[in-house]
Design goal:
CATH class of the largest domain: Alpha Beta
Radius of gyration: 20 Å
Structural class: alpha+beta
Bound molecules: adenosine-5'-triphosphate, magnesium ion
CATH topology of the largest domain: Rossmann fold
CATH architecture of the largest domain: 3-Layer(aba) Sandwich
Strand order of the largest sheet: 2-1-3
Strand content: 15-25%
Distance between the termini: 22 Å
Shape: globular
Order of helices and strands: EHEHEHHHHH
Number of domains: 2
Length: 196
């Protein structure tokens, strides 16, 4: 069974088009005009467990839309998908516990806490075993070369350093017994050989 499978995944966004100005707002109250955007059009692929993949496309191609459907944040307009055997948009807890999604504009870390404490808070919230937590945080902070940044307030980190902390935070979750099926686009050479 593939870890991630998309078949004919399609998403059409329906958005309200407001005309300009006050008159446009008033007209909008009477007759709404909608625009349809076919953000994902019959997307199909399979990813096997342990496979590393890149998901590339120009801006607006629909990458984030597909990832949101695969992680259960959005319902598709049509098509089907299975992630670890689950239908993502049913949002089953068993599935949510087994995958991570790191997005540039979404933060799991608290701005006013040092990175280490922010990670510790995530550990407590998700009830992650301390031994595993320390192994992952120590290993990844060394690999990503952010050991000397662990006690810096998250808001004072550079974007790249903050994303590394976000990645660590995403990887402290308990892995599945037979390996993790998360997928990431890695750009740093040494992450690709990471055991985490
Ligand atoms: N919530 C939304 N409502 C309406 N249209 C949307 C919505 N989200 C995305 N779109 C549109 O759907 C299309 C695909 O967007 P999406 O964010 O999936 O692209 P992307 O491949 O992730 O792009 P980027 O490389 O810029 O991140 C775009 O035309 C975008 O304007
Ligand atoms: Mg995107």
């Amino acid at each position: 069974m593939p870890a991630i499978e998309a078949s004919g995944l399609t998403k059409i966004y329906r958005t309200y088009r407001k005309e300009r100005g006050l008159w446009g707002s008033i007209k909008g109250l009477i007759k709404r005009r909608y625009q349809e955007t076919r953000a994902a059009d019959e997307v199909s692929f399979q990813i096997e467990q342990g496979e590393f993949v890149g998901f590339l496309g120009p801006n607006g191609a629909g990458k984030t839309t597909v990832l949101k459907m695969l992680s259960g944040l959005l319902n598709p307009t049509s098509g089907d998908a299975r992630v670890l055997g689950f239908i993502p948009w049913e949002r089953r807890n068993e599935m949510k516990r087994q995958f991570s999604l790191v997005m540039g504009q979404k933060n799991a870390l608290w701005w006013d806490l040092p990175a280490q404490e922010s990670l510790e808070l995530n550990r407590a919230i998700y009830g992650i075993d301390r031994t595993r937590f320390e192994k992952v945080v120590d290993g990844l902070s060394e690999l990503l070369e952010v050991q000397d940044k662990m006690n810096v307030m998250v808001r004072e980190l550079s974007l790249g350093e903050r994303m590394k902390m976000e990645l660590i935070s995403a990887l402290i979750h308990e892995p599945r017994e037979n390996g993790s099926a998360s997928f990431y686009v890695f750009t740093t050479r040494n992450i690709a050989s990471s055991p985490y």
